[in-house]
Amino acid sequence: MPERDRDLILLIEDDPAVLSSVRRRLAFEGYGVETASNGLAGCEQFEALQPDLVILDVGLPGMDGLQVAEWIRERSQVPLLMLTARDRVEDRVAGLQSGADDYLIKPFAIEELLARMRALLRRASWAPSQDPEAVLRFEDLVLNQAAMTVTRNGQPIALTPREYQLLEHFMRHPRQVLSREALFEAVWGFDHMGESNIVDVNVKKIREKTEAGGTSRLIQTVRGFGYALREHP
Description:
This protein has helices at residues 16-28, 39-49, 65-73, 89-97, 110-124, 161-172, 180-187, 198-210; strands at 8-12, 32-36, 53-57, 80-84, 102-105, 135-138, 141-144, 149-152, 155-157, 219-222, 226-229. The strands form three sheets. Strands 2-1-3-4-5 form a five-stranded parallel beta sheet, sandwiched between helices. A four-stranded antiparallel beta sheet has the order 6-7-8-9, covered by helices on one side. A two-stranded antiparallel sheet has the order 10-11. It has two domains: 8-124, Rossmann fold (3-Layer(aba) Sandwich), CATH 3.40.50.2300; 135-229, Orthogonal Bundle (Arc Repressor Mutant, subunit A), CATH 1.10.10.10. The protein is an alpha/beta fold. The model has no long low-confidence stretch (mean pLDDT 86). The longest helix is centred in the middle third of the chain and has 15 residues, at 110-124.
């Protein structure tokens, strides 16, 4: 893909009023914007455009937003911000498990949408260390910052960029108890979580991957406080 002079946003939204207002504001802010009003068209646009960020509504006709998010995640780690009118915790967890990096509940303030977009784009542009010796180790878990790879007992572990950043934060602070709020701020960049389960969902994913094959648990739950990377008791 040729280098762009501005970030390209793909907005997949079936509500004409929301689509029109968000598209106008993003264009005013200097972003390139392409749109789709259903899931299938969104997938086609994604393949053709390879955008820098996707804003995706959950309640799309036909192929819904959760299915689109899973389809995108099979092909790309592009930042994905999900819009939803569903405010139950289980609905938000489903969105995160489908591959979304963040979500925003409708109705929302456009300024909050822009802030979350900027945070996702900023983290997507984060570059790994160029020091070939930049390796973090904890027991048999090894994170190579230069190659952006993770292994446990020599076996490679495939992590999404967000999971990688979260694990890296744990490995930079071994044995320290880290609150959900502190982890959220360090990895996602917002200073208010509300009722978000985003940290818990991503810790669960990392555990599933690093504990495959019956290996011991390293990210321990500290009840009432948060999590800590510790040796297995």
